[in-house]
Amino acid sequence: MSKYARLVYNSIAETLTYRTNLVVSFGVIAIPFIIAVIFWRGVFFANNSVANYSLKDIITYYFIVLFIQDFTYPALNYDIVMDIKSGRLNLLLIKPVNYFWYAFFLRLGSNIVYFSVVMFFLIIYALVFNQFLLLTPDKIPVFLLSFLLSYILGRLISFFFSIFVLFLENYMGLESFVNFIVPIFSGILLPVNLLPGLLYKISSYLPLRLLVSYPVEMYLGKENLNIGIIYSYFFWIVLFALIDIFVWREGLKKYRAVGG
Amino acid sequence: MDVVITVEHLQKVYKRQQRKSGLHSVIKDFFRRKYTEIKALKDINFTVREGEIVGYIGPNGAGKTTTLKILSGILYPSGGFVNVLGFTPWKRKGDFLKRITLIMGQKNQLWWDLPAMDSFLLFKEIYEVPDDIFKKQISTLLDMLDAGKLVNYPVRYLSMGERMKMEIVGALIHDPDIIFLDEPTIGLDVLSQTAIREFLSTYNKEFQKTVILTSHYMKDIEELSNRVIFIMNGEIIYDGAIDKLISKTLSYEYVEVTFDTSKGFVKKSYKVNKEEIPNFLRKLLSDNSSIVEIKHKKPDLEEVARIIMASNGIKKDE
Amino acid sequence: MKRYLKIFRLQLVNQIVSYSIFKGDTILLLISDTFGLIFSVIFFKALYNNIHAIGAWNYESTLLLVGIANFVDSFYRFLFEKNVRRISALVRKGTLDYALIKPIDIQFYLSTGRFNFQTLSSLLLSILIILHAVKLLRLAINVFNVIVFIVLLMVGISLRYVFSLYSSIISFYTTRVSAFHSLQAEIFKYAEYPLDVFRGLTERIFFTLMFPIILIANAPAIAIIQNRNYLVILSIFISAVHFYLSRALLFASLNKYQSAGG
Predict the structure, then answer these.
(1) How many angstroms separate the CA of residue A52 from the nearest CA in chain C?
(2) Contact list, C45 vs chain A (CB under 8 Å)
(3) Is B303 within the bounds of a domain?
(4) Are residues B38 and B123 in the same domain?
(5) How many domains does chain A have?
(6) Which residues contact A110 (CB under 8 A, 6 or more apart)?
(7) pLDDT tens sequence across A187-240
(8) Do B183 and B290 have their domain in common?
């Protein structure tokens, strides 16, 4: 396990080296939230409720999104994409590491930094904006369980997108596609329940809302971790695990055939 | 001829950040950064006359590039007096900038995806070069560099040597009086190096332009200039003719002798103290009957530079 | 001035030529550039499905804000972004040296010349949204308010440029500036929010003077919807102050670069 610990360490050290960047990224995280508070307060000044969300619900919603999205957002993992595109993957294939876990732990390092930063700020916001935040301690266990499942699913989908690059000349199209559909259908842009009819319908067929929307709604007490949702988590997790194995095997065949 | 560059008591001090490895120091650095002062130039004095080519040499980090950047107005000095063509360079007056140029072998300024000509036309506007002069200058330069057909290919398709030729044309479009060259032949193959060297030599002779040149290839310097300024650790340790530098530093020369032996011609090289040479030759001739050829060779700049840099200054050797 | 226009034109032509070399990604880039705008429309569409208005702003007038804010943003990105963001790379790689020996206004040289053609799609889309919103709102258009409107758009573009320049200026002091660019780009994303969400006086002052996001879309929208022009003078004044401040900072930083050595 120590090789993976080393990976996490290096990735933390690298993230910390760029002092100013890190300090400013605090702001990058903070500002959308502060402005969201301002915005929704303004919206609710003129309206009592938006669908069945209260001001507290909405602010808490974006607060939790801030907390979980770095973990569950299924973005293309640049470490993987660059390994593939630069041919450095060859060097990793001859090393005794499992590439999925390699990528997983590499990413975990920056996740941890982000988490520490975000936690620090979330505590400050929670103190500053406490009047806008909904406290539901009894929901925390369900939320954490759901979040864990979302995290696993998110990593699997992210790995899928990233290794799909093995088949592509250019990954920019895929990246655009991911960055277009994920915010809309996962609940990052706004609660999925507020989406206009057709978009809402599409979202219910996709695994994306499991990544962000469900854990948050569970914290808010608007969803329960019922058996249906647990089934759909496991369905998508198993499906993407299988897809990942398949895509990785076929992708490597192609990668090796053309010589990387 | 007139003095065009005057440098007196020039000094430059840099601050550089320290950084160690390890998470501990990463975190420590995060809160407090340590800086050390580096004296890049300690007390530089020299003058350059119009039309001269001066080789500016020294090891990495000696302060060569810093000096060129101060002379071209890119950097402020920390102290001292500099006058170039009657201007104080770092005031960056338009009339000054139009009369100088800087060519850096390691940095390019042409637009990567465009044919070089497009960049030239842009520089023409920036330097306000009239049409007729632009045309004349371009055709002169392209002729001299034998690079007429290169201007129409996007720069990224050109080889390094070809690209350097285009960089040179771009830098000379406004017909500057002073040319600062920082490692113009770095990374180029022998053929391209020669081509660029020959161009600079002809250009200087034909148009009487003043050139200050830094290079790690002593051949560049030897072939282009008679005068070198040798800088080490921010100080000038020699300023004068190359021959003098060699004879001043090294007390030996080489005698190359070819013997006719049973195995064919065999060449041998002897390192001989200068005063000893007559005696050495006399002895050599009296001892051997099979000598085919004797050559007398002086050490070249490369050798002197190596010895000076290794011994950290000019000393009388052996 | 004529010389600067000529240089500008020359570079535009150069860029069109070099851009046409890469056809492969063009369509893709053009499409993905409109995502932000589409997100905004979906967001407000969804929101106004569930509410009637935010203060004086209904869906149609908010759509106008979205159009204006995105027009300003795309226009800024078309003309300036590549250049301004490149300054930090120039500082890091030392190629700023070549800019410093050019006998030309250095702010002009550093700020223009590289165009971002992928923004043309959002530029076009945002114009369509503006026109659509104007139609939905049944606004009375006359020469005077169109001129005021255009002047205010230019003020917005200039503010957007200046704040990006502020971020780049930081590169003279620290090597990594991408976070600063993300930060100010993030803040300017909220230019499309209706004025009425900023309820507190402090908020209004902060977002008018310090980070003038209110002036970007709300000022032109108010000018054309309500025919009220009180924001025009203020907008011009504030953008002029920021412009001169950024110019002074740029020159001070170039001096710093020159004295520190790159």
Answers:
(1) 9
(2) 196
(3) no
(4) yes
(5) 1
(6) A11, A12, A15
(7) 998 999 899 889 999 998 999 999 999 999 999 988 888 888 999 999 999 999
(8) no
